[in-house]
Amino acid sequence: MSKDNKRPTIGTVEQDLNQYSCPDCNSPFFKRGSRDGLQYVECAKCKRFDIIGPKLFRVATPKLTVAGWIMSNKPVMTETDVIMELANYGDHIRRYELMLPNVFTQHDNECDLFCVRKSGLCDEFEVKTSRADFLNDKKKFVMFRRATQEEYRELFTSFKERHQMPNYKPKHQALIDGDMCVNYFWYVVQEGVATIEDMPDFAGLITVCPGRSLRVIKAPKKLHKEKMSLEERYKIARKSTYRFWKLKNEQILLREAGANGE
Fold it and tell me: Which residue has the higher pLDDT, 201 or 42?
């Protein structure tokens, strides 16, 4: 095997990346990336490959061996990984004109992925990476209409929680009754988190399979026929734009703080 084709060394990084240098060649220059839910650094000189340890960065994966991480048939995925797979899915690219992650359709309902079809109908994708998270989703309450003055007065003069007010109902019931803008509702889960028997009658099911392939197990029912107007589509896209630049600014501040050793 030639020197250029030499297989890189694989290790684990536990120390601060600001003090990192390659154990093999002592080079301080590296590039950083992620794969299968784990983050890594790669030496720019000798191409040594180091997994960033869980003591330094919180990653939503168990601590795997290097061999188990590379050869595993069931790579662990974070919620962000799943959302990226949904956005890059060929059928979704052709079907939707807008695909917006982590967007609020109303003040008490954040969609993991909200998609608008060219027809104006819209889909909500709810990503669940654990069984407990999936079961807790049934406990969500949303506001399905504006409260009257009497109801507001009762809220502020009683000890009731907001979700106990008459203008709130369980989210699943609000979807069934057509009280939300969503026309189609999907659950997206990793294998083993939920089965088709666990799904509400109205919900679709997509599973994320080993190798990061998506499988549509069950199609959702159409909840209502109301379409989003062009003005409503513009408003929700604009909110996502604000959120994008807010996150971008936070990333810049974190990068500058890291460069200054703060």
Answer: 201
